[in-house]
Amino acid sequence: MKVLKTSFRDLLVIIPDVFPDARGYFFESYNSEKFINAGLDLKFVQDNISKSIYGTVRGLHYQTGEYAQGKLCQVINGKVLDVAVDIRSNSPTFGKYFSVELTEENHKQLFIPPGFAHGFSVLSEIAVFHYKCTALYSRKDERAIRYNDEDLNIDWKIKKPLVSEKDVQGKSFREIEKDFFY
Questions:
Q1: Is 25 a catalytic residue?
Q2: Is 182 one of the catalytic residues?
Q3: Is the pTM of this model over 0.85?
C-alpha cells in the first residue's frame, strides 16, 4: 500500500497493492494494521454505498461537532471525480479544493479527514461508490455547500449535472459556519 500526501494537510491518496491474475484481481481495501503502520490510526463505524448514473453530482457534504466525519472513499465500479474542499477556517488551503479520479481500474482511494466538505461527479455510465466513515450519520449535524458555488468554482467535468433538490438547497461557501480549525 502506498500513501501519497497531497498539498492539503491530512488529505491522502491511497493506492492499495493489487494482485491481478487470469480470473481478475484481489486487493485489501482496508487493513487496520497497515493503516496504523502508515500513521492512520482510524476507527471506522459506518460504511456507505451509492449507485449513480452518468452526470450525477453528489455533495458537497460534511458533518459538524462530535459527528464530523473522516471518509475513506473508493469506486467499486465505474469512474468518478472525487472532490474535497478544505473548510478548516485557519488552514492555508481554506476554501480550496482537491480532486482526483477514482476508478475501478486505478483502485485509488481518497482519505478525507474531518474539516473537509466532500462530493463527487459520475464520469462513467454508472458508478458504484463506497466510503467508510469515522462517525455515524447525524441528520442534525449534516451540512451541505452548493456544488456550483461561485467562490469554489469546482470543475466537475460534467456539462449538465444531475443534482438532488437537497444538494441544490445547500449554502454558499461564504455562508457556512466556521466549525473547523486547522
A1: no
A2: no
A3: yes
